[in-house]
Amino acid sequence: MKLHRILIAIDDTPSAEMIALNGLQLANQFHAAIGLVSIINPLLPVNYDDATPKEIEDMIDNYNHASQQRVINRVFKDVPVRCFIEMGKPGEAINKIAEEWQADMIVMGTHGRKGFSHFIMGSVAEEVMRHCKKTLVVIPIPPQI
């Protein structure tokens, strides 16, 4: 199997570094380029008082850039990484970026929620898996992270 590009999907949780490290190890093994994607979900409830929708979008975008930069500094250091920040439903947006960037593999995490929390929160990994045309590696995230 030859992989040229690996897209690593992260969020702003503490598990992002663990997911990024797993993706980096795969990229090193296959000598693949690395893409890092974060998704801005416009459907999440956000309360920014008197901010306009554009100001809210800018704040979230800046936050995601800072979150990605933190992961890059801690995990990738001098490794070149292509960064993507996309707005939309997370599963759809991850698949969209993977197609546009022509990734061969997607690496992402899952909390493995079951029952009511899965019903309420959904599963981004499940959504990606249902519509993914790429090799998908899903890293289970331990509950303490």
Helix content range of the residues, please? 40-55%
Give me the number of helical elements. Answer: 5
Global outline:
globular
Gap from first CA to last CA: 32 Å
Provide mean pLDDT, rounded.
Answer: 84
Strand content: 15-25%
Poorly predicted runs are 116-121
What structural class do you assign from the helix and strand content?
alpha/beta
Give the biggest beta sheet.
5 strands, parallel
Helix and strand string, N-terminal first? EHEHEHEHHE
* Global Rg: 15 Å
Q: Quick one: how many beta strands?
A: 5
What does it look like?
The protein contains five helices and five strands, in the order βαβαβαβααβ. With 145 residues, the chain is an alpha/beta fold. The chain is 46% helix and 22% strand. The chain has helices spanning 16-30, 53-76, 90-101, 115-121, 124-131; strands at 5-9, 33-40, 81-87, 105-110, 135-140. The model is unreliable at 116-121 (pLDDT under 50). Helix 3 (90-101) packs across helix 5. The longest helix is centred in the middle third of the chain and has 24 residues, at 53-76.
